[in-house]
Specification:
Elements (H helix, E strand, L loop, with lengths): L3 E9 L9 H8 L3 H20 L8 E4 L9 H19 L6 E3 L2 E2 L12 H8 L4 E2 L2 H4 L3 E9 L3 H13 L5 E9 L8 H6 L10 H4 L8 H8 L3 H9 L3 H13 L6 H21 L1
Parallel strand pairs: 1-7, 2-3, 2-6, 6-7
Antiparallel strand pairs: 4-5
Helix pairs in contact: 1-2, 2-3, 10-12
């Protein structure tokens, strides 16, 4: 490991003022692509102004979103716009456009990470393992992106992966926001996550906005809702949405999680009923 630096656009040091709109953050976490664009572009601009303009990186850079298995996280959407904005600046300044890589993760769980303490987060994520293509990264500077740093558990897992793979790359950990006051409980993350989304029905506006993209959080949240709410919500969605929800769920192995089984079976019955009506 040659060089490691962390950067966060916003520093959270109290529970009243975040430096960004908590309602926007909540929508972002549940798939609002317009907010993802805003956050991604702001993070790129902040990184350029706060670091890159004074510390120009000539070698190839690789942007790496937060780890996922099959369904991307909310950070993945933000990453797209971060890359677009960064590439524009690099081209204007004679640099190489960035490449992209993925950190693969192996474990899925239903627990709401944002509600956990630092110790419980580390215990939960400690069962996970991260994998990356070491040879593709050789000789390149790595930019690991995540939306928020609360306790540093994910960062420690990334550092563990870097050590396990013997990566010699220079790298940066980039965050949209970071909790800097350690006296604030880590559950502040869940206050932000659910600032505008209080029930599954609050997702309707995001899903039907015309700027929606699926992510891990919204899939888990929908599948974890009570049967009555789930059935009402699903009946108000398009077949395309329902099909994608089901495909993503089984692609991420959620059909093996007992808590999601009832709602996934409801979708299967919905398919059967719809097919019967068409016939």
């Amino acid at each position: 490991m040659n060089f490691y630096k962390s950067y966060a656009l916003h520093q959270i040091d109290n529970v009243e003022e975040f430096g960004f709109d908590p309602d926007d953050y909540s929508r972002f976490k549940f798939g609002d692509d317009l907010v993802a664009r805003e956050f991604g572009e702001q993070l790129a601009d902040g990184f350029i102004e706060g670091y890159l303009a004074q510390n120009y990186i000539e070698e190839q850079m690789v942007v790496i979103s937060s780890p996922y298995s099959f369904i991307p996280t909310a950070t993945f959407a933000m990453k797209n716009y971060f890359m677009h904005q960064l590439n524009r600046w690099l081209v204007e300044n004679g640099g190489l456009v960035v490449q992209e890589a993925k950190v693969h993760r192996t474990v899925t769980y239903k627990e709401d990470y944002g509600a956990l303490s630092a110790a419980d987060r580390l215990k939960l994520i400690g069962n996970d393992s991260f994998h990356i293509d070491k040879h593709f990264l050789e000789g390149k500077t790595l930019l690991f992106l995540d939306d928020i740093r609360i306790t540093g558990s994910h960062e420690r897992m990334i550092l563990k992966m870097v050590e396990q793979y013997g990566l010699k790359n220079d790298f940066h950990m980039l965050y949209f926001a970071e909790l800097v006051d350690k006296n604030i409980h880590p559950s502040i993350e869940n206050i932000l996550n659910y600032h505008q989304v209080k029930s599954v029905f609050d997702l309707d506006d995001i899903v039907k906005s015309g700027f929606f993209c699926f992510n891990t959080r919204i899939v888990k949240y929908i599948l974890n809702s009570d049967t009555g709410s789930f059935s009402i919500f699903i009946k108000n969605q398009t077949d395309d949405f329902i099909n994608m929800l089901y495909n993503l769920a089984i692609g991420n192995g959620y059909h093996t999680i007992e808590a999601y089984a009832g709602n996934l079976n409801f979708i299967k019955k919905h398919f059967t009923t719809t097919t019967y009506k068409l016939i």
